[in-house]
Amino acid sequence: MPVGTQGTVKAVSPEELKTLGAKIILANTYHLYLRPGHNIVERLGGLNRFMNWDRPILTDSGGFQVYSLAKLRKISEKGVTFQSHIDGSRHFIGPEEAIQIQQALGSDIIMAFDECTPYPADYEYVLNSVNLTSLWAQRCLDRKRDNNQALFGIVQGGMYNDLREKSAKELVAMGFDGYALGGLSVGEDCETRKRVIAETIPFLPADRPVYLMGVGRPEDIIEAVMLGVDMFDCVMPTRNARNGTLFTDNGRIVIKNSCHTEDGRPVGENCGCYTCANYSRAYLRHLFMANELLAYTLNSIHNLYYYIHLMSDIRSAIETDRLGEFREEFYKKREVSE
How far apart are CA 107 and CA 211, in angstroms? Predict the structure, then answer.
């Protein structure tokens, strides 16, 4: 899911997203609550109309942003009191408020409010976090009113397998429409993340989608799919695009490198995106080095196309029962380029 934090996927219009093949995007509850305000969005017809996007939207609950961005957090059973990172104003969000905000936004998939466990964290802290997340999850279910919105629970538990199992079982017993793996991609190494995913997935129902939050390297996506994950979001495609890093089947290209100064080739030799069909690496390097805004758009179009079509290829591999072979080919292409 391309990330449209503040009601926009940076540097790319909704019309361009559709052309790229995006079927769903993610928006951020915390940011839209602070600016322009969920009530304003609701009065203007909901988030789809507000941003001119007529396809599904997932909104996260704001729990991670309260953890990562907000200042002077104070956590209680009721919820979280915090200071805005924008202007220092004080706010409160609890499970009921998180659901109310997301219902006002009118998104199609909404997330339960959770307590995102920091990394590293000791066992006692994580246990309390799991208990709080389960308490809040039930209150989110109790508060939900719109049956047209799917509500996902978020599994916490840090890097402790028994606490991940506890969190997963408690949420499954409540009966959510889908389940997310939260509290990952917060500083842990790749092997630890894979272990946590592998040991948590068996406790989640096979007939519900599993969503790995905030993980977005192509390698991490493929490994997580192998373990049973279905949905992903990450700012990497657009953030890396703005920083001049482009994704290809053969690995990453840093477009500012001088080797691209006179390179007339497209970024991806077999890429079907608008950028590769019309512009050379040399031109993209020129735009980037000149700080031209068009660089952000063209780079973002390419990276989003790469990610959306990577997921499409993964789905095709699953449907034809060749996911393992696809994984081998994915890594082999990178070995050849190196």
Answer: 16
3-state secondary structure 64-133: HHHHHCCEEEEECCCCEEEECCCCCCEEEECHHHHHHHHHHHCCCEEECCCCCCCCCCCHHHHHHHHHHH
Q: Phi and psi (nearest 5°) for 249? A: -60, -25
Span between the terminal Cα atoms of the chain, in Å: 29
Q: Which two tokens stand for residue 132?
A: 């709080």
Length of the chain, in residues: 338
Contact 61, 29 (CB under 8 A): yes
Q: Is 313 a catalytic residue?
A: no
Q: Are 155 and 167 in contact (CB under 8 A)?
A: yes
User: Bridge-partner residues for 231, per DSSP?
Assistant: 211
249 counts as catalytic? no
Distance CA 320, CA 51 (A): 37
User: How confident is the model over 4-53, as pLDDT tens digits?
Assistant: 999 999 999 999 999 999 999 999 999 999 999 999 999 999 999 999 99
d(CA 34, CA 91): 9
Q: Which residues pair with 187 in a beta bridge?
A: none
Query: Which domains does the chain possess?
Result: 14-234 (3.20.20.105), 239-337 (no CATH)
Of residues 207, 233, 249, 263, which has the active-site annotation? Answer: 233
Q: Which of 60, 114, 220, 249 is catalytic?
A: 60
pTM above 0.70, yes or no: yes
CB-based contact 135:77 (threshold 8 Å) = yes
